[in-house]
């Protein structure tokens, strides 16, 4: 057996071992976060669902009972929840990433695990909360007698693209906040603006024609369209999905570059 073949034969098991350890550490930290979050609350998991439900109830009442504006599609409560629930995942993970290093500074400095885990655990924990909230969406779809189409199969694709986007944005935000503390408040303002700039309480098709094209450059637009496709097929526009996929991948690449280029300075600052 040649030296080259031995080298490659040794490399692959080593890479698999590192990846296995990374996944194990990521899962341990994620489950720890979820246990701590739920153990300190009497209602536990209910709170992760109650917040979007209250918000959905308010917007449903405002736009169907008060103003009766023709936004979205009936049943409007399903239309709302199918975008509001994934928004809570994105919003929660990005918001928490501003404290990813500052909150556990001692552990980040003293442990030898890859530092990306401290960011990715937030994305995963919020993603798990989102997955656990999907039965609530299904329940409202049944109660509201929403029509279900075969395009519901795109739901997992939406989860994958959103996970990539959320991880990319969080990897950019987490280290930069360490150097620029005011960025934490700025992120909250941007997220508040992004909520209304994204098709959550309305659909992309509700926008004027001139704005529909530009809405596609918001990566959340195509993602929400995929989530809604199973109930509202007209919300699925493949150009928007393609833009979401490309921009999500770009955010992840930039996030990894920013993170790797700043992690040493981060460890000195915290």
Write up this protein.
By secondary structure, the protein is mainly α. It has one domain (45-269). It is 76% helix and 0% strand. The protein contains ten helices and no strands. The protein is globular. The chain starts with a helix and ends with a helix.
| Fraction of residues in β-strands | under 5%
* Helix fraction by DSSP (H/I, runs of at least 4): over 70%
What is the number of helical segments per DSSP (H or I, 4+ residues)? 10
Along the chain, the helix and strand elements come as: HHHHHHHHHH
Number of domains: 1
Largest sheet: none
- Gap from first CA to last CA: 49 Å
Helix and strand content put the structural class at mainly alpha
The number of strands is 0
**Global morphology:** globular
Radius of gyration based on Cα positions: 21 Å
Low-pLDDT segments: 1-11
Mean pLDDT: 85
Summarize this, please?
The protein has 270 residues and is mainly α.
Topology, element by element:
Blueprint: H1 3-39, H2 45-66, H3 76-97, H4 105-110, H5 117-143, H6 155-179, H7 183-197, H8 209-215, H9 219-229, H10 238-269
Membrane topology: Multi-pass membrane protein
Pfam family, one: ABC2_membrane
Transmembrane segments: 42-63, 75-94, 130-148, 154-177, 189-205, 236-259
